[in-house]
Design a protein that fits this description.
The complex is a heterodimer of chains A (446) and B (366). By secondary structure, chain A is mainly alpha-helical. In chain A, 73% of the residues lie in helices and 1% in strands. Chain A is built from 17 helices and two strands. In chain A, helix 2 runs antiparallel to helix 3, helix 4 crosses helix 7 and helix 7 runs antiparallel to helix 8. Chain B has a two-stranded antiparallel sheet. Classes of the chains: A mainly alpha (446), B mainly alpha (366). Chain B: Its EC number is 1.10.3.-.
Chain lengths: 446, 366
C-alpha cells in the first residue's frame, strides 16, 4: 500500500495486467519453452533420419522462435513487471523482496537462454555435417535453460496462492518450494508442449505444401501428445488437490460459468486433444485443417482457464493470508480502522473527513481500496459500480461495505473509520448517479 | 495536491547485504546500458549509412548499414535481458522512490511496451528484408520508424529515474509530457546518453571491422600465392566495406566524444546547487571521482585522435581500455548523484533493512 494510484479506464486496471500476462504466457510457454523443445526435437529427428527438408523446416522455425521470443516474448515478460509495478505496486514490491534471489537467478538463466538462442540460430549453416552434433547440443542446452526459466518463476507464482510454511518462517526456500510448486511446474511444462504443438500444427497446415514433410512433423507431434495429454490430467488434478479449500470452492465460480457448462467444456476440450493425438499418429498425412484450429483454440482456452483460476482464486489476497488484493497488509487492517485510513496514507490529499472533504476523502478511499477490482463504469459490468449498486442509496451501501468481506469472501474488508466508510459510500453513490444520469440523458442503452 | 512525503517502506526487509546489492546494481546497470547504447546507435548508424549509400549511390555504405542492422538486432536482445537485473535491484533498493516515479508517468511507462515491441519487429523486418525488398525507399522508412521509436525509449526511462530523485516536486507533476520539462536534468542526461551511444558504438564498429579486415587479408594471403592474382571480386568488396566501417566508426567515436566536453558540464550544471558543489570541492571523494573521469575523457579524446592519425594497435587498445574505465566511472558517479539526492529523504523515511516482526494470518512472525 501507500503508493499513488493510477487508473487505466479504457481497459480497467485488472485487464491491463491480465492482457499483458496472458500474451506473455502464450509466448513464453508456447514458443520459448514448448516451441524450442519441438524445434530441437524436429532437428533431432531430421538428423537421425537424414531428412534435409525436415532440417530446413526446423531452421525456419528457429528464425520465428528467435523473432517472437526476443520481441513480444521478452517485452511482455518485462511487461508483467511494468504493469504490476504501476497498478499493484505493494504486491509486486513485496514479492520482489521475498523472491529477490529467485529473480536474480532467473536473470542469469535468461541471459544464458538468449545467448544460446542467438548461438543456435546463427550457427545453423556453420555447424553442419560433422559439426551437427555440436549444434544439436546447443539446442538441448537451450531447451534446458528455457525450461529452467519456468522452473524458477513457477516458485514465485505458485507461492502467491499457496505460500505454505513461509507464513510461519518467512524462509525463502519454504516460499519457493511451496505446496503447489511441483504440480504447477509439471502442469506448465506440458501446457507448453501442448501450445507449441498447436501453434506449429497451424503453420504446418497453412504453409507447408510438401505432404511427406507434413507427415513427418505430425508423426513427431503425435508421439509428444501421447505423453502430454495424460500428464496434463494427472498434474492438473494433483494441483487442484493442493490448493486451499476456500480457493478450491472458487475455481468454477471464478470462471464465471455454470458448473455443468464448465465441466462439459473441459471434457470437450480434452476430447479434441485426444482426437488430434490419435489422428496425428494414425493418419499423419491427413490431419484436417479444422481440427488443427480447434486444438489451437482449445489449448489457448486451457491456458486462459489455468491462469484465470490461479489469479482469481487467491482473492481477497494477492499473497495468501498476508497481503490483500488492494495492497493493504491484512495485519494493518485493525490499526488503520482505528486510527483512520487517510491519516496513514502518504498520498492522501485530505487527512480527515469533514463536510467539505467528504467527496474527496471518498475518492481517495475508493482509489486505494476498491479500484484494484472495480470501476465506476465500464465494460466489465459485473465489476462496474454503475451496474452493481445502481439505486442502492448511500446508507445501504455504507452498511454493505461494513460487512462486505463476510457476505462476499473474495473481497477484502474495508479498512477505515465509520466516517471514512460513509465518505466512500457518498463518493461511489454520487459517481454512480452521475454515470447513470448521463447515460439516461444520452438516451442510449437502458 | 498537498501530500509531501515519501511512502512508508514495505514491511518485508530488503533481502540481502545493502552494499553488495548496491554494487550489483551499478555493475548490472552498466552491462545493460552498454548494450542499450549499441542498440540505439547501431540502428541509427544503419539508417544513416543506408541514406549515405542511396545519396552517393555507393553500395559499400549500404553493406555497412546492413552490418549495423544485423548487429543491432543481436545487441537489442541482449540489452533487454540484461536490463532485468538493474530494474530488479532498483525496485528492491529504492522501492519508495521508483514506484511513485513510474506510477506518475504510468501511461508512458506502459506505452514503452508496445513501442519496444513494434520497434524491434520493425528492425527485424529491416534487417531480414535487406536484400529482398527492392523498394529502397520503403525499406529505409521501415528502419527510420524503428529507429525513431527506439530514440523515445531512453527518454521515458530518464524521466522515471530523474523524477524519483525529487519527491518534493511529485505533487506538482502532471504526467509524462509535463515531466519532460518540469524536472531538471532530463534533456541534459538524454543527450549525454545519446552521445555516449554514438561514441561506444563507433569504437565497437571500428574494432569489429578492423578484426574482420585482418581475418580477411590473412585468409586471402593463405589461399593466394600471388597477392594480386588471387584477389577475387568478393574479397575486394568485403575489404571496401571493412575499410569504410573502420573510418566511419573512428570518426563517429572521436567527434561525439569531443562533443561530450560540452554536454558533460551541462549535465553537471543541471544538478541542484548543493549536489553539484559536492562534486566541486565539498566532498573530496566525489570531487576526485569527477576530476579523474573528466581527465580520462580528455585523454580518451587524445587517444582517439592518435588512433585516427596512425591506426596503431596500441592506440586502439588504450582507447578501448580508457573507454571502459570512463564508462565505469560515469556509472558510478550516476549512482552517487542518486544517493546524494535520496540520502536526506532516507533519513526521514528509512527503508526496511532488518526484518521486524510481522503479522501473517493470526500469527506474529519474529
Amino acid at each position: 500500500m501507500d503508493y499513488p494510484v493510477i487508473e487505466f479506464s479504457l481497459l480497467g486496471n485488472g485487464m491491463v495486467i491480465g492482457l499483458v500476462a496472458f500474451i506473455h504466457v502464450l509466448i513464453s510457454h508456447g514458443v520459448a519453452i514448448g516451441g524450442t523443445a519441438m524445434m530441437v526435437s524436429l532437428e533431432y529427428r531430421a538428423y537421425k533420419t537424414n531428412n534435409k527438408r525436415l532440417d530446413q523446416f526446423a531452421r525456419t522455425l528457429s528464425k520465428w522462435v528467435l523473432i517472437v521470443t526476443t520481441t513480444a516474448g521478452a517485452i511482455t515478460g518485462v511487461g508483467i513487471w511494468f504493469t504490476t509495478m504501476v497498478i499493484t505496486p505493494a504486491s509486486i514490491g513485496s514479492l520482489l523482496r521475498i523472491f529477490f534471489w529467485a529473480w536474480f537467478a532467473e536473470w542469469i538463466v535468461f541471459v544464458t537462454e538468449v545467448s544460446l538462442l542467438l548461438l543456435y540460430y546463427y550457427t545453423w549453416d556453420k555447424w553442419k555435417g560433422a559439426k551437427k552434433n555440436i549444434h544439436l547440443r546447443v539446442g538441448y542446452a537451450l531447451v534446458g535453460f528455457s525450461w529452467l526459466t519456468a522452473a524458477i518463476i513457477t516458485g514465485v507464482l505458485a507461492a502467491k496462492l499457496t505460500p505454505g510454511l513461509w507464513t510461519e518462517t518467512l524462509s525463502f526456500w519454504n516460499a519457493f518450494f511451496n505446496p503447489t510448486y511441483v504440480p504447477s511446474l509439471l502442469f506448465r511444462t506440458f501446457i507448453a508442449i501442448l501450445l507449441a504443438v498447436s501453434f506449429i500444427s497451424i503453420i504446418v497446415k497453412m504453409r507447408v505444401k510438401d505432404n511427406a514433410l507434413q507427415q513427418e512433423v505430425f508423426g513427431v507431434f503425435g508421439k509428444w501428445m501421447v505423453v502430454t495429454i495424460p500428464s496434463l490430467l494427472i498434474f492438473g488434478v494433483w494441483y487442484l488437490f493442493k490448493i486451499p479449500e476456500q480457493a478450491y470452492d472458487q475455481v468454477i465460480w471464478s470462471t464465471g460459468m455454470e458448473p455443468l457448462v464448465f465441466t462439459t467444456i473441459n471434457i470437450l476440450g480434452l476430447a479434441v486433444l485426444i482426437i488430434y493425438a490419435l489422428w496425428a499418429i494414425k493418419l499423419p498425412k491427413k490431419v484436417p485443417v479444422i481440427l488443427v484450429f480447434i486444438v489451437w483454440a482449445a489449448s489457448i482456452g486451457f491456458v486462459g482457464e489455468f491462469e484465470m483460476v490461479r489469479e482469481s482464486v487467491r482473492k481477497p489476497y494477492v499473497i495468501y493470508d498476508y497481503l490483500y488484493a488492494n495492497g493493504i497488509p491484512a495485519s494493518k487492517a485493525e490499526e488503520f480502522s482505528e486510527e483512520g485510513f487517510l491519516e496513514n496514507w502518504t498520498f492522501a490529499t485530505v487527512d480527515e473527513v469533514t463536510e467539505e472533504t467528504k467527496y474527496e476523502a471518498g475518492r481517495i478511499l475508493y482509489e486505494a481500496q476498491c479500484l484494484a477490482c472495480h470501476s465506476i463504469d465500464g465494460w466489465r459490468s459485473r465489476r462496474a459500480f454503475a451496474d452493481r449498486v445502481a439505486g442502492w442509496g448511500e446508507d445501504s451501501l455504507a452498511d454493505y461495505i461494513e460487512t462486505m468481506h463476510i457476505s462476499r469472501p473474495f473481497m477484502p474488508p474495508f479498512v477505515g473509520t465509520e466516517e471514512e466508510r460513509e465518505a466512500l459510500a457518498h463518493y461511489i453513490t454520487s459517481e454512480v448517479d452521475q454515470a447513470n444520469g448521463e447515460v439516461a440523458k444520452g438516451g442510449d442503452e437502458q | 495536491m498537498i501530500f509531501q512525503s515519501v511512502p512508508v517502506d514495505l514491511e518485508l526487509a530488503i533481502p540481502g547485504n545493502w552494499t553488495l546489492l548496491m554494487i550489483l546494481l551499478v555493475v548490472s546497470f552498466l552491462m545493460h546500458i552498454v548494450f542499450a547504447n549499441l542498440t540505439i546507435a547501431g540502428a541509427f548508424y544503419a539508417v544513416w549509412n543506408e541514406i549515405r549509400g542511396m545519396v552517393k549511390n555507393n553500395p559499400v555504405y549500404d553493406q555497412l548499414a546492413s552490418q549495423s542492422a544485423t548487429m543491432t538486432s543481436i545487441f537489442k536482445s541482449i540489452a533487454v535481458v540484461l536490463g532485468v537485473a538493474p530494474l530488479l535491484l532498483v525496485s528492491v533498493l529504492y522501492t519508495q522512490y521508483i514506484y511513485p516515479a513510474t506510477i506518475f508517468i504510468g501511461e508512458a511507462w506502459l506505452n514503452l511496451l508496445w513501442i519496444l515491441i513494434v520497434a524491434f519487429l520493425l528492425l527485424y523486418l529491416y534487417k531480414f528484408s535487406w536484400n529482398r525488398l527492392k523498394n529502397k525507399g520503403l525499406h529505409l522508412t521501415i528502419g527510420l520508424i524503428g529507429t525513431m521509436m527506439l530514440l523515445i525509449v531512453p527518454l521515458i526511462f530518464i524521466v522515471a529515474v530523474v523524477s524519483m530523485l525529487y519527491p518534493d516536486k511529485w505533487a506538482g507533476a502532471e504526467g509524462f509530457f509535463h515531466s519532460l520539462f518540469y524536472y531538471p536534468q532530463i534533456w541534459q542526461r538524454y543527450f549525454h546518453f545519446i552521445l555516449a551511444s554514438f561514441a561506444v558504438t563507433g569504437l565497437v564498429m571500428y574494432f569489429w571491422n578492423k578484426r574482420k579486415l585482418t581475418q580477411r587479408t590473412k585468409l586471402h594471403a593463405v589461399d593466394g600465392k600471388d597477392e594480386v592474382a588471387a584477389t577475387t571480386e568478393n574479397v575486394k568488396e568485403d575489404v571496401k566495406v571493412y575499410e569504410a566501417g573502420k573510418s566511419f566508426g573512428m570518426q563517429a567515436a572521436f567527434w561525439t566524444t569531443a562533443l561530450q566536453l560540452v554536454i558533460g558540464p551541462l549535465v553537471l550544471f543541471s544538478l541542484d546547487r548543493e549536489v553539484r558543489l559536492l562534486y566541486l570541492g565539498d566532498d573530496v571523494f566525489l570531487t576526485s571521482l569527477l576530476s579523474i573521469s573528466t581527465l580520462l575523457s580528455v585523454v580518451l579524446i587524445g587517444m582517439l585522435f592518435m588512433l585516427m592519425k596512425t591506426e596503431a594497435k596500441k592506440w586502439l587498445l588504450s582507447s578501448l581500455t580508457t573507454l571502459v574505465l570512463v564508462i565505469g566511472l560515469m556509472g558510478w558517479m550516476r549512482h552517487e548523484v542518486r544517493e546524494s539526492y535520496i540520502d536526506p529523504h532516507r533519513a526521514e523515511n528509512p527503508p526496511t533493512i532488518e526484518q521486524q516482526p510481522i503479522q501473517i494470518g493470526d500469527m506474529m512472525i519474529e
